[in-house]
Amino acid sequence: MWFTKTSKIGENVYLVDVKMHGKLGSTSVFVVKGEKAAILDTGSNSTVKNLVERVLDLGIKRDDIAYIMPSHCHFDHAGGAAYLEGEFVKARVLVSDKDAKRLTTPAIIEKLVEGGRQTFGDPTIEMKPINNFDVVKEGDLVNLGNGVEIEILDTVGHSKDHISFYESKSRFMFVGDAVGIHMPQTKTITPTAFPPEFDLETFVATIKKIESYQPEIIGFAHFGAKTAREGYLSLKDTVKVTYKWNNEIIKAYKEEQDLEKVAEFIVQTYGKGLDEFAPNHARDLARSLAQGFLTKYTKPD
Ligand SMILES: [Zn+2]
């Protein structure tokens, strides 16, 4: 089963399609509800309105939202956080120690915005510093009442600040960008190898760590949620695909010594999944992903 619509998907878990860049089926946010509720990831500044409307549609009240929990600092995961503070006034933003710095330092925020605008060609991307936040770390339990708790996991590899969230009652794991882009429409897996922080070995170790929890449902930022029962989780496939990309990209780069040619190869080979994720930006994404895999080859030493 692959959940792709804004709906209740588990005993205490809700999926919200935030309609990123005006497109359904690209970016999801999740809500976990006990007595109080937590929003996992935030979407971007432009999707805050959609997100709030969908959360209210699902029957969750504004005052129920106690926590806003971005998985990492990228604009499509944390960009909405500061704006959501104004919508859910009782909520605290929970962040890793790295993001406590990143999401409050204007110079870093500027770089995050610039990176997002460049990769997605979207000049409307904005971010502002978060205000009402607390730091969480690996192993912390966020208590939502009614026996619902969210465990914090360190899940670096895609980025150095990435955390994931495990809710044991539904055995639901929200993985953000930690295990790739899984597109339901094209059934493709794209490694989230964006520079400058992607690290192949850490990325793979994180996927194995997530697998060790044996989640029943995995929620992806991109996109939707998959269930284990039908063998849908695809974690092993993600590891395979990631090594395949790595080998192919390094081989192509060694042959061509030209990033643009490597990007073209990725578009030719994997364009379908990239197009589905960000229409008209396959080439930009491909270039960026190639750079992620090639960090140690292209970096001047
Ligand atoms: Zn990311």
Polypeptide structure, described:
- The protein has helices at 48-57, 75-78, 81-87, 97-102, 106-120, 200-212, 235-256, 259-277, 282-293, 295-298; strands at 2-3, 7-10, 13-17, 28-33, 37-40, 65-69, 92-95, 133-135, 141-145, 148-154, 163-167, 172-174, 181-183, 188-190, 217-220, 224-227.
- The protein has 301 residues and is an alpha+beta fold.
- The protein has one domain (2-236): Ribonuclease Z/Hydroxyacylglutathione hydrolase-like (Metallo-beta-lactamase, Chain A), CATH 3.60.15.
- Helix 6 (200-212) packs antiparallel against helix 7 (235-256), helix 7 runs antiparallel to helix 8 (259-277) and helix 8 (259-277) packs across helix 9.
- The protein starts with a strand and ends with a helix.
- Bound molecules: zinc ion (ZN).
- Zinc ion binds at residues 72, 74, 77, 158-159, 177, 192.
- Residues 72, 74, 77, 158-159, 177, 192 line the site of zinc ion (ZN).
In short:
The chain has 301 residues and is of the alpha+beta class.
Supply the key terms.
globular; alpha+beta; binds zinc ion; about 300 residues; Metallo-beta-lactamase, Chain A; 16 strands; seven-stranded mixed β-sheet; 10 helices; about 35% helix
